[in-house]
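4.2 Preliminary Data

To establish feasibility before requesting continued support, the project team ran the inverse folding procedure on a target of 259 residues. The structure was first converted into the token representation described in Section 3, and no sequence information of any kind was made available to the design step. The complete token record follows.
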């Protein structure tokens, strides 16, 4: 697929792939084509053995300021059902490798939902998060009511969803929505540093651990504990486990191969 609305850059030396949303004039509003391109890129990067972590970003002004309302305003419920646009979001959620959102400026509506679909979020001091769909007569539809509530709790989620209130990066961090806040000129660099830190670990262990953490959102406690235990045992079938423990005993840095 030729990409019109995203840019993809691979840094194989550090095993990091950078995906940049690229509709600057529209503040990176998420139209259907952009989401299809993002889905395609993530599927390919997930299969690329040289890539161990993926960073998604926008620009300093906007990560993504929401869905493309011009594309949506005339559609009916049946139109949306036929398009099945949320299947694209479901596929993004299924990415096995860790995905980090590097956010500056606006992360609103679908942009906030996209950031929350990622595994970790690094934000600049200028970042604003919100679900303002209520102001145009609709509500979040790509996971906003569910992921936001799990991240920040019922009270703040209700206020954001029912009034369209934005919160600052510092408020988002204090509420547990994001990992860290840095000056605007450093947000992408900080996200890449976090990705590089992840890439030093065993790719197999990372995949199993990510899968297990996400299970906490999708299952009850007992089912989640069972799933975690199964994946813990799976780690002991890998060469990385042997290398990691041997390196610890020998007091050296492990050389993980992803096997």
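Position-by-position output of the design step:
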């Amino acid at each position: 697929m030729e990409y019109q609305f995203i840019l993809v850059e691979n840094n194989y030396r550090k095993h990091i792939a950078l995906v940049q949303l690229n509709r600057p004039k529209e503040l990176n509003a998420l139209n259907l084509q952009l989401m299809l391109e993002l889905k395609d890129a993530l599927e390919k990067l997930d299969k690329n053995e040289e890539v161990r972590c993926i960073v998604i970003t926008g620009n300093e002004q906007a990560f993504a300021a929401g869905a493309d309302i011009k594309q949506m305003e005339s559609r009916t419920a049946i139109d949306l059902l036929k398009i099945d646009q949320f299947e694209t979001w479901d596929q993004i959620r299924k990415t096995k490798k860790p995905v980090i959102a590097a956010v500056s400026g606006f992360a609103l509506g679908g942009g906030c939902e996209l950031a929350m679909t990622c595994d970790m979020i690094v934000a600049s001091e200028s970042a604003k998060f919100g679900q303002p769909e209520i102001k145009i007569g609709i509500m979040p539809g790509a996971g906003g009511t569910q992921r936001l509530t799990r991240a920040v709790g019922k009270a703040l989620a209700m206020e954001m969803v029912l009034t369209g209130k934005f919160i600052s990066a510092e408020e988002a961090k204090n509420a547990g929505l994001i990992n860290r806040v840095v000056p605007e000129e450093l947000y992408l660099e900080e996200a890449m540093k976090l990705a590089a830190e992840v890439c030093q670990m065993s790719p197999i262990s990372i995949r199993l651990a990510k899968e297990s953490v996400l299970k906490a959102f999708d299952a009850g406690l007992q089912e989640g504990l069972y799933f975690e235990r199964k994946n813990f045992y799976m780690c002991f079938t890998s060469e990385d486990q042997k290398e990691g423990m041997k390196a610890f005993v020998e007091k050296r840095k492990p050389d993980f191969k992803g096997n």
